[in-house]
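sorry for the late reply, my laptop died twice this morning and i had to redo everyting from scratch. anyway the thing you sent over, i finally got around to it. pasting the sequence first so we're on the same page, its 488 residues, then the predicted structure underneath. double check i copied it right bc i was rushing
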Amino acid sequence: MTAINDQRTSASSVAVNQTLVPSWQHRYARWLVVTDAIAIAFSLALAQRVRFGGSLEAYREISVAIAVSWLGALWANRSRSQRVIGSGAEEYRRVWLGTMSVFGGIAIISMLFKLEIARGYLMVALPAGVLLLMLFRWAARRVVIRAREKRGQCITRVLAVGSAPAVHDLTAALAREPWSGYEVVGACVSGAKSPHEMVISGVGTIPTFGNELNVVSAILATGSQAVAITATEHLHSRRIRDLSWELEKLNIDLLVAPGVVDIAGPRLHMRPVAGLPLIHVEKPQYHGAQQFQKRLFDIIFSGAVLICALPFLLTMATAIKLTSKGPVFYRQERIGLDGKAFKMIKFRTMVEGADKMVAQLADLNESEGGVLFKIREDPRVTVVGRFLRKYSLDEMPQFINVLKRDMSVVGPRPPLANEVNNYDDNTRKRLLVRPGITGLWQVSGRSDLSWEDSVRLDLFYVENWSMMADLLIALKTIKAILGHSGAY
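ok and here's the structure:
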């Protein structure tokens, strides 16, 4: 009985300490209030300066009213909620919705009461405010990510609860994206009778603290700030409800991972039915209007790139021809949509006959998994070719493949025929969409990725394709190319 009372006392002490000491999320949210206010004030002052010149008295009351309404809309849309700040697109979406609600309200009020609010003033304030709000939010995220990567700060310590395979998958998934801010520091494993250590491939070891009955003591031992319940057959609904009440007293967050992996947020919808929180997973979208949008984007984007880059393409072709023997272009058979072969066009970056040298260099292959063939310092690459590869300029002619409908601007990596021969049924899903010049694999490490990670990212793209995702990947590709990470 004394031990139980001591444990409750310790738990109460933890709760009090966590309540008194603000978490990094609280400090982060307070800083966002300051940066949001600065962004809004600057955008309105700029609009006033541009529209009315040096007269800062004009529209002063209106500017103050708009600023207060704008900050209020951001608060009402919970744009600084601890559930969305720091990662994901939801934070930006809420900032956008809050901003649009303010300016939409201004338009309606102006029309109803016939207020003569200068349109030039609003036309400057709106884009300037959105740009600054998004920019400040992005900068704040970079500070947090740097603190996580460099100093191990701004991390939420997580206790995983569930079956051994589920805990393993959850820990590995969170470790793959350290910028998400969650770190599994311990586990309570279903059926475990005594504490031991669990080995997580690619991560290391984490301590376990018996089964689900030891959650509170495990929290105290690890200093966890959240409990993540994943797939387990031992925790029924009543026990989870009781556990949520216990964690509430400790000021500990409760997370439930339903085991639905590699499904993007827009495809998941919570639907309460008969008191049960059912998760509805939308079907992947490949056809109809979505396919038309993707094709239209491919044509416009590829045509614009080829026309604008024509002088640079001619310069690169001349450099290749003058510095090494062989053709300017290199055509290689790749496998595209539905397993159909096509000739992918690239600028030649290797010496002539490089394909015949693969067997001689097999021992130098650095690709994990044995399916791909990659060498960081490949002796077959020419001097000009090394420069082109560094900035992915050798892939520019692939926009011709896009116009020919062989490829898309964004999609899975175009595989070789011998790779496809080794595909299992799951990996073959990569062929459900056209391969892309860029994709998740391009902005997530490129040649530095293992075979398993490359497949996982490609399948995630196939399962969760959207037009917005394509636009974001295209923008991130520019950063990846300029940083030339994983390019060799």
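Residues 11 and 220 are 7 Å apart (CA to CA).
thats about all i looked at so far, will dig more tmrw
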